[in-house]
Write a structure and sequence with these properties.
By secondary structure, the chain is an alpha+beta fold. The protein has 9 helices and 6 strands. It has helices spanning 2-18, 24-34, 36-51, 111-178, 183-217, 240-250, 252-272, 320-386, 392-426; strands at residues 20-21, 62-79, 85-107, 226-227, 278-292, 299-312. The strands form 2 sheets. Strands 2-3-5-6 form a 4-stranded antiparallel β-sheet, with no helix packed on it. A two-stranded parallel ribbon has the order 1-4. The chain is elongated. The mean pLDDT is 91.
Length: 430
């Protein structure tokens, strides 16, 4: 018997060693590297950064090499004012043009500088949006990780009940054999044992589902196995005044809304530049050659530098500039309304999260005491059972009260951790 116990211990030991231990910090680090939502958000942020260039804002010149050529075969008839007539029934002509040209907008009402500022604000907005996605993913990881811990704790409580039920079957069998317990008591004990074994099977399935959900967030194979922590740490004490003071400067929702206002203001400035004149500069070096098989001009070749420019002054645009400016003003006003709304909603969300945290703390404190009471009550019932001083119904109820209390206890712990995580997410302090 002792050898079997040693073999069982070694099997369990090596099985646990084969499973990878996964802490919450490790899970968060894996998610930051592998999570698909974070990868997409990072790419979007990088795109905004790539777009923020002077060239994209229209501040730099463009230089290009151009070239063209053609060959034609024509029947030409000419009658000149001098009365001379030319008839070329089969004239072949060729033309070749090439050049290098620079185009540069020197002045566009200041739009290029406003656009550059707008691109910088868009890049900043992209960085905030990326941070917001990271915070949301961190919250989801914490929720999924501690859900596995919660389900694991629930299985532990079921295993405790299984042990109690096995002991109960043993004691009831002894009592039945001695004649002071009814067969119905023995049958109920065996039924309760089987139900608890079924609950263990179902709970193991719940653990596997919770692990798969976490694996999805970690962007790893869904059947990757790991061992999580045994308990949920609850050592956070929120400072309400500090949280409130940090909200406007830290909350990503508020920061994104503020950045949208800045972008809308720059869009308005961009549209106002449509009323101002524009100055363009052009310079290049050009080569042109043409030849004809017959005719007055047999060959013509020109080459050399060329410099020019243009000025355009908007006098009337059919109301297009006014329409754009009016729309941009309304967009800016809407973004300001949106910021006020976001601030109000976020402050309310923080208040609710604080209230929920305090409520969960109180509930957890009460349930801890209740858990100790149900545990002691169950132990007393088992002692009474061993002396033939109780009924099967009493022990069954004591077990039910214990399981219900333990379930509430671990759920309150989980809810308290989620309230803590929500508070940290609101002020970006993971």
């Amino acid at each position: 018997m002792r050898i079997k116990s040693i073999i069982l211990f070694l099997l369990v030991f090596f099985s646990l060693q084969a499973q990878k231990s996964l802490s919450l910090d490790e899970a968060l680090n894996i998610a930051l590297k592998n999570n698909y939502d974070i990868r997409v958000a990072r790419n979007n942020s990088d795109i905004d950064k790539i777009n923020n260039t002077p060239g994209n804002a229209g501040m730099l010149p463009t230089i290009q090499i151009t070239g063209s050529g053609n060959l034609s075969q024509n029947n030409v008839y000419q009658k000149l004012s001098s009365g001379v007539e030319n008839n070329f029934p089969s004239q072949s002509s060729s033309a070749l043009n090439a050049g290098t040209e620079l185009n540069w907008t020197l002045f566009d009402g200041g739009k290029m500088f406003v656009t550059k500022s707008k691109l910088s604000e868009i890049e900043s907005l992209g960085a905030i949006q990326f941070k917001d996605k990271v915070l949301q993913t961190q919250f989801d990881i914490i929720a999924a990780y501690y859900d596995v811990v919660r389900q694991k704790q629930q299985l532990n409580s079921i295993n405790v009940i299984i042990n109690y039920n096995r002991e109960r079957v043993k004691l009831t069998q002894i009592g039945f054999d001695a004649g002071y317990y009814l067969k119905s008591d023995l049958l109920q004990a065996k039924i309760d044992l089987n139900v608890s074994l079924e609950n263990a099977v179902n709970q193991q399935f719940a653990i596997n589902v919770a692990k798969k959900n976490l694996n999805v967030l970690l962007a790893q194979n869904f059947d990757t196995d790991f061992v999580v922590a045994d308990s949920i740490p609850l050592d956070y004490t929120p400072d309400k005044e500090k949280l409130m003071s940090q909200l406007n400067s830290s909350n990503t929702g508020i920061l994104m809304s503020q950045k949208q206002i800045d972008i809308a203001a720059l869009v308005l400035k961009e549209n106002k530049t449509g009323y101002l004149p524009k100055v363009n500069f052009r310079a290049g070096y050009y080569y042109s050659q043409s030849s004809n098989s017959v005719g007055t001009t047999l060959e013509n070749r020109t080459f050399g530098p060329e410099v020019g420019g243009s000025v355009s002054i908007p006098l009337f645009s059919a109301g297009e500039n006014k329409r754009k400016v009016s729309g941009a003003k309304l967009d800016l006003e809407s973004e300001e309304y949106n910021l006020s709304n976001v601030k109000l909603q976020t402050k309310t969300e923080l208040e609710n999260a604080l209230t929920d945290f305090e409520n969960q703390q109180q509930l957890l404190k009460i349930e801890k005491e209740n858990y100790e009471l149900t545990k002691e009550n169950l132990e007393i019932s088992m002692q009474r059972l061993s002396h033939g001083q109780t009924t099967a119904l009493e022990v069954h109820q004591a077990q039910e009260f214990y399981v219900q209390s333990f379930t509430r206890l671990i759920n309150f712990e989980y809810n308290l951790k989620m309230s803590e995580s929500k508070l940290k997410q609101l002020i970006a302090s993971f």
